[in-house]
Amino acid sequence: MVELVGNHYIVARAVYSENSFNEEHVKLHRYHKTFWDHLKLYFRCSPQRVKKIALGLFPIVSWLPAYRFREWILSDIVSGINTGLVAVLQGLAFALLVNVPPGYGLYAAFFPVLVYFIFGTSRHISVGPFPVLSLMVGGAVVRLVPDESDGNVTSLNMSAINEERVMVAASVTFLSGVFQLLLGIVQFGFIVIYLSHSLISGFTTAAAIHVVVSQLKFMLQLPVPGFNKPFGIIYTLESIFSQITKTNIADLVTSLIVLLIVFVVKEVNDRYKAKLPTPIPIELLVTVLAALISYFVNFEEKFNVAVVGTLEEGFQAPVAPNISVLQKCIGDSISIAIVGFAVAFSVAKVYSIKHDYPVDSNQELIAFGLGNIVGGSFKGFASSTSLSRSGVQESSGGKTQIAGIISAVIVLTVILAIGFLLEPLQKSVLASLALGNLKGMLMQFKEVGVLWRKDKYDCVIWVVTFLAAVFLGLDIGLATAVAFQLLTVVIRSQIPSCTVLANVGRSNIYRNRKDYTDIYEPEGVKIFRCSSPIFFANIEYFREKLITAVGFNPLRVLRKRNKALRKIRKMLKKGELQVTPKGLICLANHTHESDEELDNNRIEELDQPTNMTDLSILINWGTDLPPGITVPQVNIHSIILDFSAVSFLDFSAMRVLQKTLKEFVRINIDVYIAGAHEGFLDKLERCAFFDEEIKPSMFFLTVHDAVLHILLKKDIACSPKSKLAEEKGSSKDYIITFSNGLRSREGTV
């Protein structure tokens, strides 16, 4: 019964153990589906299920018929044109990161957009090249087709090297798409949860550093070979600085001017985005201006600058991936697949929350997988979503992926008709544009201080991820970061928070006894909480903390008592002890039992419960024992284990827990477990946890139920004795009173 009195409530009910509660309240039997049941449900076939699968696989069927043509078409056209112009420039720029001719970046900005239009679930992201993925693909390309030819390929010219690199990039992209497609089919979209925000932030920041270093050779126009190996960034910087005197000044000046202009205008766009109808397309303006100047001044001949060169018109025939390349880049493809999906889904989730529509992680995997398969077949490279490009599409009014199709039309126009206008453009300009899009990633350094103040574990994950990705490379760095992140989870669960609780505020609330002054602890009762799952890796830590909390080792006490009983029997047999109504009286000079003699005792016998049936007296271990016999004092009679935060208990931990509880029971300490979750008892029964010493009756619904049970059992209500925690400087005296079996307190000064 619950009675409300103002903002208080009074509850009157029986004290419930798990057994008594189940006896009074009938529990419904529920059938829990097995693995085979789920498997049958997944593979069952019905018209409704076929329709649901079809609509899920082709989201366009759901949203396109509901398209508000009059309201949205103009916004999508404007957004698509702006996004398409940015996509063209980023495709050309990010192709340099892949170490392939710039024209192939246009394929990566075209084909995945068409596929995502049909299969994708996000309405606002712009699919296409992403600098981090481009750099990861470029790492595989440089490793398999290095800049410096060995003796076996001396006859290869630059054109042949470029063609081979294009094939490697396409094969890596194809394989990463296959991995994404398979993960989507088997419903592995949840894999993104293993890449935390801290890990993704540290990884993308490290990738931005790699992008900066990789573009220096284009900004300075230096022949720097690729070093796709651990500490490759150090070797790259060493190569750059060893040739710094050969820098092309025209490229360097052009790069610095472009960078300055891009950063300034992007800052203006960010600061005044609420007032600007659309962001200033600075990349487009700079590209047009730089191409015109380069053409009319003839930079290529006068200053020997590197330019984009001939862009092939039209599309090349689709090709099958190179099998030998696939075998060598499995690890690269897996990393690219996971990182590409994680970044894209994170951005899609932001926009889905902002505009209130769902995104399906598994369908996103399928969409990006098919996009990379098609893109790789047409010699493109891996695609995801660019943060800046998606920002342009959303902020300029894009409503659906119709804007994506319009942007693809812009890219198509460049591929088929006007690509030749970009041929005089300097590569250093594209490198500067690539760096200009890294501002957001580089600004993530600010997160380190914020994370340190909020969560030091996340801060350490960020730093380790960043350092590993910078110095070990993006592929090995990602694997290292994921392993370290999982290690932090293990460490946190291996060293759980264990506290001793006390009653606070004369109620049924129990909190850490160290945090409050107005607390009550029943005499002889310890309430111990573990705020973590208990399993094989932390059960020993749990046991140690429990022993520290109670102040003694129960196994040591048990062995000491059995040794004492053995010596008492021996002294009684020799007549050295006499049993009297007042206790045992020693009639002879006592002698201490030697350590050697104690060590020779059989441990198995000492670990058994104390047996005093053959004695004519019941020994009270709390009173004085005969001289020469010492046993550790035990000042508690009950222990309550709060398992409300223990989500699971594995079999290994169960065995150790059972052994520990038996040790306490064998020295006459009652043990109770409170707050165990549903199904906990059933699992213990299945694992034969209970026996004559450990019984289901020790389980109670709440800590307060267990405390009240102990008070009633020990008859404390008749003669209350309590131990009140005395804080430093406290001058209060407390009077403990009881009413109807419930504790209350009054404080007097």
From TrEMBL:
Segments spanning the bilayer are 77-98, 104-120, 127-146, 166-185, 192-213, 249-268, 280-297, 334-353, 365-382, 402-422, 460-487
How this chain sits in the membrane, per its record, is: Multi-pass membrane protein
What InterPro entries does the entry give? S04_transporter_CS, SLC26A/SulP_dom, SLC26A/SulP_fam, STAS_dom, STAS_dom_sf
Tell me where the signal peptide lies: none
Q: Extract one GO cellular component term from the record.
A: membrane
Q: What keyword terms does UniProt attach to this protein?
A: Membrane, Transmembrane, Transmembrane helix
A Pfam family this chain is assigned to: STAS
* Chief location category: membrane
Q: What is this protein called?
A: Chloride anion exchanger
**Source organism of the structure:** Balearica regulorum gibbericeps
Its taxonomic path starts at: Eukaryota, Metazoa, Chordata, Craniata, Vertebrata
